[in-house]
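Hey Z.,

So I finally got round to the glycine thing we talked about over coffee. Here's the setup:
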Amino acid sequence: MLRWLVVGGGAREHAIALALRRAQAEVVVASPNANPGLDRAAVARARLPTDAVEKIVAFARSERVGAAFVGPEGPLAAGLGDALRAADVPTVGPDRDSARLESSKAFCRELLARHRVDGQPRFTVLRTEEEVDAAVAAFAGPFVVKPSGLTAGKGVWVQGSDFAGPRDGASYAKSLLVQGAPVLLEEKLEGEEFSQMAFVTDDGIAPMPAVQDFKRALEGDRGTNTGGMGSYSQRDHLLPFLSTSDRDRALRILEGSVAALRAEGLAYRGVLYGGFMLTADGPRLLEWNVRFGDPEGINALTLYEEGNFSDLALGVANGHLERNLVRFRRRATVVRYLVPPGYGARAEAGGTLEIDEPKVEAEGVHVLYGSVEAVGPATVRLGTGRGVALVGEASAVHEAGERVESALAHVRGHFYVRHDIGTQADLTRRWEHMRQLLRPGAPPSPLPLSVAPPEAPPSSAGPPEQLSG
Ligand code: AMP
Ligand code: GLY
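And the result:
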């Protein structure tokens, strides 16, 4: 029986561990928190910060693991992939140099520009205050300010939402420069965001279903950017506003980016996940992430066919893609995170949640534990991060959303959740947003609920599959 090391303590890692367990593999876990879900799934555990590279490698050795799956980006940026491979542990997760695709947005944009990879917004990399002033003065149109380094999705400021005018953007950019790393100024893109993940290894890429993540803290996409409050995926593995041809364009950007890495002598064995904006001119890359999305990875892993995830992942770690094992069920999924009140601004840690798991499961909803600590058999304490993910599955997105809504009746405690994730009203809003970008002034056309296939957006090659059935 293969023994896996899973690194990380969130709901994404819980989903990874469960997928490995369903494939009869054994799991040991290195996580900073006493995650009750991971603790239940694992035969051994070490409480370690995820960037404690040497200690994690020592734990992997002492547990004689056959392979490792690294959940978050931090340890990959710190070189955990390199260190595990040096210790002869095949690992899902790139080496530090390739992890710069995520850990250095400046490296990423400059690499893709050198290799003329399609789908990049206009951008400029700034290293001094003078460069900020000059770039802001010269930048045509609204822009976005991004720290180059890792920020857990929280450091990006968008003009119009996070700051008003160029002058405020410039002062934010300067405040970031003080931290030492470069800052990016990017063209502000309008559209709908989607996440496209793929397994990537030496001999190819294998895409996963497209997912939409809800970045903003509050309902109606208000509030600050967060790590993601929830997500959904559609039965045909597209999204209400995403056609096959637009998804294929995103996959070509992914292939081009992997080819750019290779051309510079950099290998990649792991999951690669693009945050894309679908604009009126097609998909544009917002960022690469070198791991499963959280929560998007939960959608994908929920849909993974009961094949053998362990063999698939081991193949990726060894440089070989077992294509016949890349199979995702044709079902819709909705994830909603239960978070501490104030999450995204000033999170109130310490509240408890009582979860009646059997009743939640009876609604067709799974519980995945994140940044929580167990305090009793059915009680967990929230930290400052995303606490518990509820994932519902059904034939249509709104039905999966309704299941999660019903399951919430079996959770008691002081928490915040975005009730709009996976509702028909929200799907319609996004569909209409994209239609208006493509055909300004077009009369509203409601997104069909569960009968005929929705009208394809004008940019698409063909109608997406019907939403329910
Ligand atoms: P990133 O960490 O680069 O994915 O950015 C976090 C979030 O900021 C994204 O999910 C978008 O909501 C927003 N964002 C990033 N880049 C842009 C852009 N060029 N135009 C508009 N919004 C952006
Ligand atoms: N859902 C956003 C992320 O995983 O970065």
